[in-house]
Every structure is written in C-alpha cells, then in structure tokens.
C-alpha cells in the first residue's frame, strides 16, 4: 500500500467528530468547500489536501497569539500556494482571529471582504504576505527567516527566536525564483526556515508528470537543505517531521504526500478539484465520506472549541516575551520598538541636512551611483536598521557603505548581504525583511535587470512595503556594455506601476534628497535609477527644503518671460542646462525643470503642475529612454529628445551623439516647435 492508500483507509476508521485531529482538519475542509461553492469560484482542492498538515502545524507548533497578531516574535506562516487562500481563512476563523468572522468566510472573494481570492497583506490579520504569484511566498519567507536571525544577532535570542513556516505547492517549487530562494537560504543556513511541500503531484493541466521529472528533494538537498518525504495525511508523521526539522542546523523541506481534494469521492486526486467549486452534489457526497453532517458554515461546538483552545496556546509565551522585552536596557528596548514601528530616529533629518550643506559647498562631479554610496555612508551611520546588498554587483552598484560587514551563515550581525546573481530572489527576500519588520532593506543591480525582479517589485508596491531598489547603469550612458545592458523602456514601465516611486536624480544633492524621500516613505517602495557616468553638480545652492519632494522643481529660470521649458531627469539635466544656454544665447528665454520623480509630481495640485511645466511655453522633455509617458507633460506643441529603440555598444559620449540626445538637438527641437506655433 502506498502512504496515500494507507491514510485513505485509516480515514474510515478514525473518529471524525469532536476534538479529534480528523474533526479539526475536516472543519477546514468543510469551510473551504462551502466558501468556494458559495463564491462560485476558488480553489477547494489544496485546502482539503493540506488540511492535515495545517492542523498539525497550527495546533502543535505554530507560535502565534490571535489576540495579538503582530506580536514581533510570533512564528511566521507563509501560504506560498496562495490559491489555497481558504485554508488560511479557515484556520484564522477557527483559531479565533477577531477580524475573521464566519461572515467574512461567507463573503469569500466578494468586494469589501477581507477574504480576497488570494491572501492579501494588510487585509486580514495573520496574513504575513501577499501570495498568489507562485514562488513568491517561499522566496519572501527566506527574507523573513533571515530577518529573524539578524534581529537575534542584534537583540538576543530572548527577543528574536521564531520559526518561519511555508506551505508550498508544486507550482511554487517549479517557479524559477524558488531556485534562487533555496540557494540563498541553504547558503546562509537558515535553519529556522521549514517548508512544508504539499506534494500532491497534481497541477492545473493534470498530473505533475506532464511537465516535471525532477526530484524536488534532491534539489533541496543539493542546495544544503534537509529533505524528507512523509505521508501528509498522517498526523503523527507530520508532527515527527516538523519536530525533527526544528532541531536541524539547516533549512528543511518536508515533502508531504497528499491527495488534492481529499474527502471528495469523485474529485480527490484529480485536477478537477484544483480550481473550481466541487458542486452541490459532490459536496454532499464528500460530507458523507468525511462524516461531516453539519450545515454549511457551521462548525460543531466541540470542534470549534478545540480550535479556539489551540489558538490560546501561546498567550503565555507572548506575555513572557513582553516581560523579557521590558527587562531590556531602556535604550535597547526603545530602539527595538522604534525599529518595529518603522519610524526613523530623531537624528536622521539633521544628518541629511548637514551632509547636504557639505555637498553644496563641495560640488562633487560624481556619477549618481557614487553619490548614492556617499549618501549611504551618512545614512547607514545614523540608521542601524538599513540592510544593504547587491546581486553580485557591489562595486558597480556602490551599495556597500564604509562600515558595513557582510552577513554570513556564522554571523548575522552584519548589515550587507551578498545575494549572489539572484535578482528575483533578492527582491523577494527584501520584501520578506520589510514585512518581518525591524529592517529597511535596500539592494542593487543594473536598472535593466529590474525585469528580473519585477514580480517582487510589484508585490512591494501592492503590499506597500518600504523596499529600496538601487538600480544603477540607468541608460545608454553606461556605454560599451551595449543594448543588452542599456535600459530604454524600464523607466516608463516602472513608472506605470501604482504605488512605486521611481527616482532619477541629477547630481549628488538630488541623490541625497531622493534617498531621504525613499527612507521617509513607510508605505511605498522606491527605485533609485542611478548613472554609471560622472555628472556635474547642478544643485549649487543650499535649500533646507527637499526640492525633490514634489517630484519636480525649477532648477534654472529663464532670463525673462520663458518661451521654452526644458524638462529633464537624471543625467539629461546636464544636457537641458546646456540647451538652455544655447537658446538664451540666441535670444530665446528658456528655463530648466528637473523632474527626479514623475510619480510624486503627478500627485501635486493642478496649479503646481501647470506652473512647473510652464503654461504657454514650448515644452521639450529630455530623457535617454523611450518617450512613453512623456506626452502628458509636453503636450501637442512640445517635443521629446530620447531613445526610439534599443541602444548600441560604444563609449557613452558617442552614443549620446549617435542617438541625437544632445543640447543642440534639444535647442533645435525647441526652435522648430516655436516656429510651428507662430
Ligand atoms: C506565477 C504564477 N503562474 C501561474 C499561476 C496560475 N496557477 C495557479 S495555481 C497553478 C498551479 C497549480 O498546481 P500546484 O501548484 O501543484 O497547486 P495544486 O494543484 O496542488 O493546488 C497555476 C499555474 C500563478 N498563480 N502564479
């Protein structure tokens, strides 16, 4: 008999009432069947198949307190297979999370309910991260497990000592990002990361064997994990495997062989139970098979009581933890609490202001990636919560400040992470660190490789997490590496993403101001698009105000009533200033507007925007990237100087000339449009 057949037979003989394991697991199954049926959409198969795993984990191990869902030292549970969201909602209702009422379960997938189709961070308590795009959950969990160890290195094991559990499906493990994630976790020996794999051998198209012949266990083992296979319907085996994994010195994979849609007589073990309601008739049969006689959305009181008692298991642990926190020296405790709240320390603004004064005096001609490095030397000295990193481009991204020590498997006290060439895994891990709380993650790669992190950047934005992406080599200005490395459409496509601030500073002062904005915004991720090439200082006067805060400001006014407004970002601000000089020389008053963040600019009042763009002037935008998105600023009378296609391999000055991104081209365009107008 296979493990599955064994457990299906065992199912018949065990009690399915009261407070038994079977009854508690069946409560999850019943709620999942009923909610999906009522919503007429959703995924019953996964919650039904994984109900035994979840019951053991949540009743015997998971350290949480539903009455204080954000207790910092709680265990994290990540439902990586987010399509099985009803599993998590059912658990949270059964455990007694206050916000997860039976009404919410009834309103599964409906507008305004907290029970969204896939678990969404910030909607319901106990949802640690948004999942649904497969692979993201497991990769995010790596960042959580890393943050846990890093907090322990700073505040002690008595303050940070929790596990990160993941429930992952075949799809999670097939997605490429899982490879990056398990590689990083194995390398850093994140031993408190435990992945429970819902090994049901079924995906949407049918049997997993249609598309997979690999050995998941060997893959994890090769990455430095422990791996075991168990019967995912045998509570004792599940408990023993988790127990063992918790003692391991490496991260652990527990492949739990399960039957998708367990309990459904005609759909169990089949892909038909994956993503559609079972149907009233089949639900009736499943209820009979499971010995479940209660009405839909009704849990027998003995079973519900057993779950609620399980939900209370760790209240004392939480209280004891609070006492330990209170016993910390006052400055340490305050620092911990501040970091968890996400507030910046008092000295931050002052340090930025002092450094800005120095920059204005020094007028350095640095590449903005170098300006960013210098800014980080100041920032990291006053913000102990920043954690830097790079996807193997540390010397190019300039993300490592002077004092930063690398994090290693033996020493988590450092604050710089060598993510390796794992951009996607890096971005997801940063989400995990931000969600965990206690850290502000930032890390770098080339701007062109935002494409390699985009699904995680999207989740940073959707979840409103303060993750800072330091993306250097931001245009053809990178030169000889050529079109594979030269972003052209990236700025436009990133700007299209809601709740993401794309900053493209022009010099050292703007870079510092953009860093300040990125750090001060708790609920929005930022991209800092930075140049490889050196740039002149354009901000030569001190302003206490952060001029980048409204997205755009007039950098250089016209000599008299302006006829032309030159709008530019980053490295092209220099070109705009030179074009202004050419125009002024020819008697055409022109002004330059630096636009380091179009996202912030778009949020300003209409008056501010019209005023800044220069009503009645001919508007010429200059950006070494595609035009997409700029027409809303330049209007029908303006023009755009930038890229029309991919770049080329050559020294940067040659490329700017070749692609006609020059002061002369901008001045000529302005004159031509002025002539059209008159
Ligand atoms: C990145 C991504 N691609 C595709 C999907 C659509 N999708 C949802 S579940 C799934 C696969 C289902 O197989 P499995 O992961 O084994 O889940 P199970 O059938 O066991 O519930 C797919 C392709 C998705 N959610 N995310």
What does this structure look like?
The protein is α/β, with parallel strands linked by helices and 678 residues long. It is 44% helix and 12% strand. It is built from 27 helices and 18 strands. The strands form four sheets. The protein has a six-stranded parallel β-sheet with strand order 9-8-10-11-13-12, sandwiched between helices. The longest helix has 20 residues, at 136-155. It is elongated and about 90 Å long. The termini are far apart. Residues 8-13 have low confidence and may be disordered. Bound molecules: thiamine diphosphate (TPP). Thiamine diphosphate binds at residues 45-46, 81, 83, 132-134, 169-171, 175, 198, 200, 202-204, 260, 274.
What's the layout of helices and strands?
Layout: H1 3-13, H2 21-39, H3 45-61, E1 76-79, H4 85-95, H5 102-106, H6 136-155, E2 164-168, H7 170-174, H8 176-187, E3 193-199, E4 202-203, E5 206-207, H9 216-222, E6 226-231, H10 235-246, E7 252-257, H11 280-290, H12 301-311, H13 315-326, H14 330-341, H15 348-362, H16 368-382, E8 386-390, H17 394-397, E9 416-418, H18 423-436, E10 440-446, H19 450-463, E11 468-472, H20 490-495, E12 501-503, H21 508-520, E13 526-530, E14 553-556, E15 564-568, H22 573-585, E16 590-594, H23 598-602, H24 606-613, E17 618-622, H25 631-634, E18 639-641, H26 652-658, H27 663-677
Parallel strand pairs: 1-2, 2-3, 3-7, 6-7, 8-9, 8-10, 10-11, 11-13, 12-13, 15-16, 15-17, 17-18
Antiparallel strand pairs: 4-5, 14-16
Helix pairs in contact: 2-3, 2-4, 2-11, 3-4, 3-10, 6-8, 6-18, 8-18, 15-16, 15-21, 16-21, 18-19, 22-27
